[in-house]
Amino acid sequence: MSFSPDGQWIASGSEDKTVKIWSVESGECVTTFNGHSDWVTSVSFSPDGASIVSGSADDTVKVWSVESGKWKMKSSFKGHSATVESVSFSPDGASIVSGSWDDTVRVWDVESGECVENLKHPKPVKSVSFSPDGTSIVSGCWDNMVRVWEGKVPKEFEGHSWFVNSVSFSRDGTRVASGSQDKTVKLWNVKTSQCVKEFEGHSQAVNSVSFSPDGTRIASGSLDKTVKLWNVESGECVTTLEGHSGGVNSVSFSPDGLSIVSGSADDTVKVWLGRVSENPPLRWDVPERIAKAKLLGDEIDRDVAPWHKKPIWVNSVSFSPDGKFIVSGSYDNTVKVWSVESGECVTTLEGHSDWVRSVSFSPDGTLVASGSKDGRVKLWSVETGKLVRTLGGYIYDDDGYRDDGYMYDVNSVSFSPDGQWIASGSNDATLEYTVKLWSVETGKLVRKLVGHSQAVNSVSFSPDGTLVASGSKDKTVRLWNVETGILVKTLEGHSSNVKSVSFSPDGKSIVSGSWDVRVWDLKTGKVVIINGWGWIVRSVSFSPDGQWLACSMYMGVKICNVDTGKSVTWLPGHSDMVNSVSFSPDGKSIVSGGEDGRIQIWVVGNNPLGATVNETVVPKLKF
User: Fold this and answer.
1) Confidence label for 607 from pLDDT (cuts 50, 70 and 90)
2) Would you say 95 and 77 are in contact if contact means Cβ atoms under 8 Å apart?
3) Mean pLDDT to the nearest integer, 455-482
4) N- to C-terminal Cα separation, the chain
5) Which is deepest, 106, 356, 590, 618, by most CB within 10 Å?
């Protein structure tokens, strides 16, 4: 069993030789993968949620990915000579680890399908997993040992008296939990290799263990038909979840920690929900409305935890020209300016009456422009924090909507390179779906660019200031002449909403983000298509040297090579959708803002993509 990174889907593998994806909300099976020739023993989502890996008794490892909105088998890795018991993606999604009855753990390169590592064990391997930083692998073996591998020679954790069926790293990577045929769950210190706690309570073999996202709980599933929750600190059993009529083979926490999914030999998948009580703050119980789903399709009765409040979304982020500050626009109707060095908010700009969708520094760094759902573009002085002027708005009177430069839902704002103009894209009250050009000096509407048939989501000036690019819900990217307002070119090919557009630093290309990412060569017409990862890309940004693209994703940022279109680095760290991403002016940092309410800076150095994420790409600041 495996939750998708957004917690909306569950993947399951079964003796019927299939992999199924279930909707947590409805309980319905939405997709079935056929391809294995024997029972499926293990499944796991990739960190970006766009792929699933499965291991089978047919001795193969298969990868399933989303292409054009449909799941397809992408590759099949052959090399094991016996049942593959356990599979898992690396944190960056570039590798897969598998454990098998052939007494080996193998590491596979996802892109090439090559086996890059073969770690030999004395007996069959039941469970494997990468550490959160991707530098280590933990394995559970039928010789009763837990091993942590950082090379060819592992650390060995000795203490179980029977087979080790399941292993799991804590989120910080300092501890490992293991479940065994000896009916116990053990907690190990990775650094010392010592068992620091033993959890006893199951009456039969423990088949599966899983840490909660915050590391305070361990869930265990057992042949005794129960799921138990353990307090990591005290070692006490917090609660026992009963309801299965067969042994529990797999347990997993949802990404938000509010749910547990369990799969059983009784042919059911159950989703258990956390509840609130005064003390302790989180209590798990099982009301009569237990969420459950038979593999043949019973409806899941899904409660919504009333205490899970959505954080204030960060919709847009951007570096100042000198790289010392970051500006952000948020769901709380404010614009904030942050110091990169200290991580402190130095200025809060208040004045919008609805949430701020887009923010941008002027080229000289003295002004900030913000676009809001309230229909206004506002200009702010960075030095004083005061409002300089307001551009546009919407009016409704007896004659209906009046335009005169007024807008509704400003989705994007961008300064021209010389700082004299601001371009804005919106859902216009007049339903013209325009791009508007404003004079920074006077605040007046200078030009209105009409042509899109649906909302304009993103605007960007060319480096020489002669063109404006716009991306729209009508699936097109359009190029406009700034001086004349004439439509120069329409770029078509996206199958859905274009959420983001940006010129390359040399002005020769445009990148656009939708369900896929496209890099358009404006001279030759050549298009590099980067296949989607199962999520719409809301923001794309060129590196200053034009070699790399930062693409916003669910729970992180993808870095891609512009020439090849290949994804080369995955930056995890967010717990929800990333709405905005941008390179710093020197290209050594990336800032991202998301629906988890966080702004995160990644220090990537001079060559962020030639090394592994955990060596050179690390989160520096979290706002």
Assistant:
1) low
2) no
3) 94
4) 33
5) 356
**Does domain 314-534 correspond to CATH entry 3.40.50.2000?**
no
**Taking residues 20-45, what's their average pLDDT?**
86
pLDDT value, residue 408:
66
What is the SS3 assignment for 251? strand
Q: What is the pTM of this model?
A: 0.53
Q: What is the pLDDT of residue 257?
A: 80
- Per DSSP bridges, beta strands 282-284 and 268-276 are antiparallel
Q: How far apart are CA 110 and CA 461, in angstroms?
A: 37
Q: How far apart are CA 415 and CA 367, in angstroms?
A: 10
| SS3 (DSSP) at 585 | coil
Write the CA distances from 526 to 435, 518, 519, 529, 561, integer angstroms: 26, 10, 8, 10, 16
Closest CA to 229 of 242, 214, 217: 217
How far CA 504 is from CA of 170, 236, 522, 541, in Å, comes to: 41, 57, 11, 9
How do the domains of the chain map onto residue ranges?
204-309, 314-534
Q: Do domains 204-309 and 314-534 have the same CATH topology?
A: yes
For residue 273 the two structure tokens come to 């929900």
* Cα 215 from Cα 283, distance rounded (Å): 16
How far is it, in rounded angstroms, from Cα 105 to Cα 88? 11
Among 381, 323, 333, which residue's Cα sits nearest to residue 354?
Answer: 333
Dump strand ranges (E) for 144-202: 145-149, 155-158, 164-169, 175-180, 184-189, 194-200
**Which pLDDT value is given to residue 157?**
96
| 167 in Cβ contact with 155 (< 8 Å) | no
**204-309 to CATH, choices 2.40.10.10, 2.60.40.1180, 3.40.50.300, 2.130.10.10:** 2.130.10.10
Residue 394 has pLDDT above 70, yes or no: no
**Amino acid letter for position 435:** V
